[in-house]
Write a structure and sequence with these properties.
This protein has 947 residues and is an alpha+beta fold. The chain folds into 4 domains: 224 residues, 2-Layer Sandwich (Cytochrome Bc1 Complex, Chain A, domain 1), CATH 3.30.830; 165 residues, Cytochrome Bc1 Complex, Chain A, domain 1 (2-Layer Sandwich); 205 residues, Cytochrome Bc1 Complex, Chain A, domain 1, CATH 3.30.830.10; 192 residues, Cytochrome Bc1 Complex, Chain A, domain 1 (2-Layer Sandwich). It is built from 31 helices and 27 strands. Strands 3-4-8-5-7-6 form a 6-stranded mixed beta sheet, with helices on both faces. Strands 14-15-21-16-20-19 form a 6-stranded mixed beta sheet, sandwiched between helices. The protein has a 6-stranded mixed beta sheet with strand order 24-25-23-26-22-27, with helices on both faces. It is globular and about 80 Å long. The termini are far apart. This is Zinc protease. Its EC number is 3.4.24.-. It is an enzyme of class 3 (hydrolase). One of its GO terms (biological process) is proteolysis. It comes from Brevundimonas variabilis.
C-alpha cells in the first residue's frame, strides 16, 4: 500500500476523532508523491519499468507496444486491433487459448486493448505466477503462431465485437464512426481503431504476419511490472526471457505524416441510424497533443463544463432547461493530436435546435467570461481526487505509467500533470477556450433515427468530405511462419514460485445507540475513504403497481436536503473531491460516498442531510421523473438490457423480483411525492441500515465519522418492516422472443432459479457457474466464442439474493446465428447436469473465483461492496476470510448435486432480443411454442409482459 502525503496537518484524530484536515477544503491537501519506479533498457531496446509494492496481494505484468490504429496498413483499418486478438492466442510453445486458461486457473485476470497510439497486453496474478507471465509475454513477442485457424476465428470474433459495441447500442455508430470520421481530416487518426466489416473481410493471413514482423519487437515494447515482487529476481527473469530476443534486421516502417491544414470553415453533418430513441448532437473542435502545455488548462475547462452535476453543461442543459438527458465535453489528447468533443442527448419532446442553442451559449460563455474562483477550485479538486483514486492499486499505478509513456514518452508525466493542474489560472482557462473552441474550425453533428432519413439521402451522409489519407503498405514478411511444436518438444512454462505475504484489512464493528450498525475496515494507507450506507429492503419492497419507487427515492435524496438545493449539494460534494452515488437493488438500497480523508467531516455533514432530511421537492420529482423515463427510452432500445429485464419477468412473474427496479415509463409517471415520502419514512431508518467505512481510517476514526454523520438519525417508534415472498413460486419455462427491428445484434439470455446467497448450496453452485461461464475459460466462452467465433463474449453469472437468485447465461451474436447460439447455451446448462466435472477442473475454477475475490477487495470500493453484501444477505463478517475456504471446499460431487438441484431436467427460461426476421424461423423449428412480442408492445410492468 503506497503511502501518500497530506500537507499541513496531522492524521491524528482530534476531539471529534476525525483527521484534522477534515474541516478544511482539500484542494491544497491532496498531494500524491511521485510514482515510484526504476527503469532500465536492455541491449535489444526493450524498456523495463519496475514498481514494487511489498503489501500488494497481486502483481501486474503489462507490455505496451508502440503500434496502434494509426499504423493500420492501407485498406486495412482495424488491423492493429485484429492483431491484438491474434497475438493473445497461440505461440510455438503455447497451444491456442492456453494463456487465458493459465491466468484464470492461477486466480488472475488478463486482457488487452488497442488505441490509436498503442497496443497493450496485461495480466494481474498472484505474485507466485510472475515468472510464468513474463515467459508468456516473451513467447508472444518472439514466437507467435499466426495460422489460418487463428486468423479466421479471431477475425470473426472482432466482427462480433464491432456489432456488439457499435451496431447494437443506439449511439455506437455516433461515437465510433460519425464523430470518429469527422474529428480529423488529413490525419493519421482519421480511421476507427476497430475498423469496418468490409476491410476486416478483405484482410489476409499474409497481412497479419507482415504486421507482426514490421512492428512487434523488443525495441518497440515497454514492459511494466507492478505489485508484490523482488526487484532483483525480476531483473534476472527479464534478462533470462527477453534479453535474447533479436530485433528484425529491417527498420520499423516509417510513415511520412500527411499535412492536415487547419480547418477554417465550419461543417455540419446529419447522420441516421436504426434504434435511436432520442436525437443526439455533437460539436467537434481540434485539440492538442498529450504533451502540449495547454492540456492541463483544457482538462480544467472540460471539468468546469462537464464533470459532475454542478458542471455548466449539466446545470444548463439537463437540470435547468431540461433540454437534454446528458451533456458533456471531453478533451481527448493523443500522442500527436487531440480533439474537444461536446455530446448531448436531447430529451424527449425537446427541439434539437433549442438544445444546440443552449450548448452554443455555454461554449460562448466559456470563451467570453472568466470562470469563477469557486469553479476553478472545484475543477482542480475533482481532477486531483480522481488521480488519487487511480493510484489505489498497483495495477492502477501501472496503467498511469503506461499511458504516459505511450502518449507523452515521459514516465514523469502523471506527476508533472498534477503540478500543471495546480498552477492553472482562470485566465488560462479562458485563453484556451478562446483558442480551441473556434467556431470556424467546428464540426456540428445531428444524429437521428433512421425513420427520419429523407428519401434519397445516402446511408453514408455523415462521411467527412475530406479524402482519407493514403497509409503505408507494410512490406511482406520474409521470415518463415511459426508452427505449434509437437507436445513432446514444447518448452514448459515456469512453475509458480512460493507465495508472498500480503496485507489483510482490519475489520471492526459497533452499533450506535440509534441502532445503526457501523463496520470499519482499514484497508489502505492512501488517504481516501469510502462510506456505503446499506438500507435493507430495496426494489423488492416496491408496491406491485409502483415499480421504480425505491429507485426514485434513492435518486431524489441527493436532489435537495437540509436546506441545500440539488445543485448546492452537487457543488459542495464536488468541491470536496467527493463522489456520491447508489440506487436500489433487489434486496437493499445503497448510498455510497468516496472522498479524500481530508474531506471526511464536511462530507459527513452533507451525508447526514441527504439521509435524514431530504426535501423531495415537487419540482425535483418532476425533473427526476423525466430524466428516468428518458433513460429508459435509451436502455430499452438495446438488446442486452432489454433481454435482462424481460428475463426477470419470465423467471419471477408477479413476484417482487420480477418487477423492473428502475420502473417503467408508465409506473414512473404515476409516482407521487406522498408515496416517496412514505417509502422513505418506512424503510430509511437507522435500525434498518448499516454504514460501512473502508479506506485509510482506523476503527476509532471510522466510528467517529459515523457518529458525527449519522449518530443523530432518529429511530422511529414503529415496528421495523420486513420484506417477504420476494422470489415467489417458480414459473414454468418459456422461450420469449422480442422483435427489435434494425437491431445490430441479437441478445440471448437463459436462466434457472438458484438458492439464496446465505444457503450453503450457493458455494458449489457458484463453482458450477464458473465452470459453465466464468471468464474466458468457461465453457460458454469456449463453445460460443473460442471455437466458433459467434460472439465477442459469452458468460454466466450467479446472482446473490436474499431469496432465490438466478443462474443466468448471456451473450450477443449476429442476428443470423441467434438460433444456433440458443442451442449452444442450452446445451451447456444440460452439460452441467449430465457430464461430471473432474477434480482438476473444479480446483481450477475454485482458484479462478478466489483470485477474483482477492482482487475485488483490494480496492476500498470493492471491499465496502463485499461487506455490504454480508449485511444484506445475513452473512458473518468473517465471510471475508471464510469465502475462499467455502469455495475451495467444493467437490465434483457437490458441484453436480448443486447444478442438478438448480437446473434439473427442465428447460431454462430463454429470452432472445433482436431483429427476429433473421432468426425466427430457425428458432421456431427448435422451439415451436415460443412467444414472439414486438418490442413496442412489451409491458415490463405486467407479470405477463402485456400478453
Amino acid at each position: 500500500m503506497t503511502r501518500f502525503a497530506l500537507i499541513g496537518a496531522s492524521l491524528l484524530a482530534l476531539s471529534t476523532g476525525l483527521p484534522a484536515q477534515a474541516q478544511t477544503a482539500p484542494a491544497t491537501a491532496i498531494v500524491a508523491p511521485p510514482l515510484s519506479y526504476t527503469q532500465r533498457t536492455l541491449a535489444n531496446g526493450l524498456k523495463v519499468y519496475a514498481m514494487p509494492d511489498a503489501t500488494a496481494g497481486t502483481v501486474t505484468v503489462q507490455v505496451w507496444y508502440d503500434v496502434g490504429g494509426k499504423d493500420d496498413p492501407q485498406g486495412r483499418s482495424g488491423f492493429a486491433h485484429l492483431f491484438e486478438h491474434i497475438l493473445s492466442r497461440k505461440t510455438v510453445n503455447i497451444p491456442y487459448g492456453q494463456i487465458a486458461a493459465w491466468v484464470e486457473n492461477a486466480g488472475g485476470t488478463r486482457n488487452a486493448s488497442t488505441g490509436q497510439d498503442f497496443t497493450n497486453y496485461y495480466e494481474t496474478v498472484p505474485p507466485q505466477y510472475l515468472e510464468t507471465m513474463l515467459w508468456t509475454h516473451a513467447e508472444r513477442m518472439a514466437r507467435p503462431v499466426v495460422d489460418q485457424e487463428v486468423f479466421d476465428l479471431e477475425r470473426s470474433i472482432v466482427k462480433e465485437e464491432l456489432r456488439q459495441n457499435v451496431y447494437a447500442p443506439p449511439y455506437g455508430r455516433l461515437s465510433r464512426f460519425v464523430i470518429g470520421d469527422n474529428a480529423f481530416d488529413a490525419s493519421i487518426y482519421r480511421r476507427s481503431v476497430i475498423g469496418s466489416i468490409e476491410e476486416l473481410d478483405s484482410a489476409r493471413i499474409e497481412d497479419a504476419r507482415a504486421f507482426h514482423e514490421a512492428y512487434y519487437r523488443p525495441a518497440t515494447a515497454t514492459l511494466i511490472v507492478s505489485g508484490n515482487f523482488d526487484p532483483v529476481q525480476l531483473d534476472g527473469w527479464v534478462d533470462q526471457y527477453f534479453a535474447g530476443i533479436i530485433n528484425p534486421d529491417r527498420p520499423v516502417p516509417a510513415f511520412e505524416r500527411p499535412v492536415s491544414p487547419p480547418r477554417t470553415q465550419p461543417r455540419s453533418v446529419v447522420a441516421y441510424a436504426p434504434n435511436v430513441p432520442l436525437p443526439a448532437i455533437a460539436a467537434i473542435y481540434p485539440g492538442v497533443a498529450a504533451d502540449h502545455p495547454d492540456t492541463a488548462a483544457l482538462d480544467v475547462m472540460s471539468a468546469v463544463l462537464s464533470r459532475g452535476e454542478s458542471s455548466r453543461l449539466y446545470r444548463s442543459l439537463v437540470y435547468d432547461k431540461q433540454l437534454a438527458t446528458s451533456a458533456g465535453l471531453n478533451a481527448g489528447s493523443q500522442e500527436e493530436a487531440g480533439t474537444l468533443t461536446a455530446q448531448v442527448i436531447v430529451a424527449a419532446g425537446k427541439a434539437i435546435a433549442d438544445a444546440e442553442a443552449a450548448l452554443n451559449a455555454e461554449l460562448a460563455r466559456m470563451r467570453d467570461t472568466t470562470i469563477t474562483a469557486a469553479e476553478l477550485a472545484e475543477a482542480k479538486t475533482e481532477i486531483l481526487s480522481a488521480d488519487l483514486r487511480s493510484r489505489e492499486t498497483s495495477s492502477g499505478r501501472a496503467f498511469l505509467l503506461g499511458r504516459a509513456l505511450v502518449s507523452e514518452g515521459d514516465a514523469n508525466a502523471p506527476d508533472t500533470r498534477l503540478a500543471q493542474i495546480r498552477s492553472v489560472t482562470a485566465a488560462d482557462v479562458q485563453r484556451v477556450a478562446r483558442t480551441y473552441l473556434d467556431e470556424n474550425a467546428r464540426v456540428s453533428i445531428r444524429y437521428l433515427d433512421e425513420s427520419q432519413r429523407p428519401e434519397g439521402t445516402p446511408e453514408d451522409s455523415w462521411r467527412n468530405p475530406v479524402p482519407v489519407p493514403t497509409f503505408l503498405t507494410v512490406p511482406p514478411a520474409i521470415l518463415p511462419p511459426n508452427d505449434l511444436l509437437p507436445e513432446d518438444q514444447r518448452q514448459s512454462r515456469p512453475a509458480p514460485g512460493p507465495e508472498r505475504p500480503k496485507a489483510a484489512p482490519m475489520i471492526a464493528e459497533r452499533t450506535l445507540p440509534n441502532g445503526l450498525r457501523v463496520i470499519v475496515a482499514r484497508s489502505t494507507d492512501l488517504p481516501i475513504m469510502n462510506a456505503q450506507l446499506v438500507i435493507n429492503g430495496g426494489s423488492s419492497t416496491d408496491p406491485g403497481d409502483k415499480p421504480g419507487l425505491a429507485t426514485m427515492t434513492a435518486g431524489l435524496v441527493t436532489q435537495g436536503a437540509g436546506g441545500r438545493s440539488a445543485p448546492e449539494i452537487a457543488s459542495t460534494l464536488e468541491a470536496l473531491g467527493a463522489n456520491i452515488g447508489g440506487g436500489a437493488g433487489a434486496d437493499a438500497t445503497t448510498l455510497s460516498v468516496s472522498a479524500p480523508v481530508v474531506s471526511a467531516q464536511a462530507v459527513g455533514a452533507v451525508l447526514a442531510d441527504i439521509v435524514t432530511r431530504p426535501t423531495f421537492a415537487p419540482e425535483e420529482l418532476e425533473r427526476s421523473r423525466t430524466q428516468a423515463i428518458n433513460g429508459l427510452r435509451v436502455a430499452l432500445r438495446q438488446p442486452g438490457p432489454l433481454a435482462s429485464q424481460v428475463l426477470a419477468r419470465v423467471a419471477y412473474g408477479a413476484a417482487p423480483y420480477g418487477a423492473p427496479a428502475s420502473g417503467t415509463p408508465a409506473s414512473l409517471a404515476t409516482l407521487t411525492r406522498d408515496e416517496i415520502v412514505g417509502f422513505h419514512r418506512q424503510w430509511w431508518r437507522p435500525d434498518n441500515a448499516a454504514l460501512i467505512v473502508t479506506g485509510s481510517m482506523t476503527a476509532e476514526e471510522g466510528f467517529a465519522f459515523a457518529e458525527q454523520a449519522l449518530g443523530g438519525w432518529t429511530r422511529p417508534a414503529e415496528a421495523l418492516p420486513a420484506p417477504t415472498a420476494r422470489a415467489g413460486q417458480a414459473q414454468p419455462p418459456r422461450v420469449v422472443v422480442i422483435d427489435l427491428p434494425g437491431s445490430g445484434q441479437a441478445a440471448v439470455s437463459a436462466a434457472v432459479r438458484g438458492p439464496r446467497r446465505a444457503d450453503p448450496a450457493w458455494y458449489p453452485l457458484s463453482v458450477a457457474n464458473a465452470v459453465m461461464g466464468g471468464g474466458s475459460n468457461g465453457r460458454l466462452f469456449q463453445e460460443v466464442r473460442a471455437k466458433r467465433g459467434l460472439s465477442y463474449g459469452a458468460y454466466s453469472a450467479l446472482a446473490s439474493r436474499a431469496e432465490g437468485g438466478l443462474l443466468t447465461a448471456s451473450t450477443q451474436t449476429k442476428n443470423e446465428s441467434a438460433a444456433e447460439v440458443v442451442d449452444l447455451v442450452l446445451a451447456e446448462f444440460a452439460r452441467l447436469v449430465n457430464e461430471p466435472v473432474d477434480e482438476t477442473a473444479v480446483t481450477d475454477r475454485e482458484t479462478f473465483l478466489t483470485g477474483g475475490f482477492s482482487r475485488n477487495i483490494e480496492t476500498t470500493g470493492g471491499l465496502g461492496g463485499f461487506l455490504a453484501d454480508t449485511v444484506v444477505y445475513g452473512l458473518p463478517l468473517t465471510e471475508s476470510e471464510a469465502f475462499a475456504r467455502q469455495i475451495s471446499a467444493t467437490t465434483p460431487e457437490a458441484l453436480q448435486t448443486a447444478a442438478t438441484s438448480a437446473i434439473g431436467s427442465g428447460t431454462p427460461y430463454v429470452v432472445v432480443v433482436g431483429d427476429s426476421k433473421l432468426f425466427i424461423d430457425a428458432l421456431r423449428t427448435r422451439h415451436p411454442d415460443l412467444v414472439l412480442i414486438p418490442s413496442s408492445e412489451v409491458d415490463l410492468g405486467s407479470p405477463t409482459l402485456g400478453l
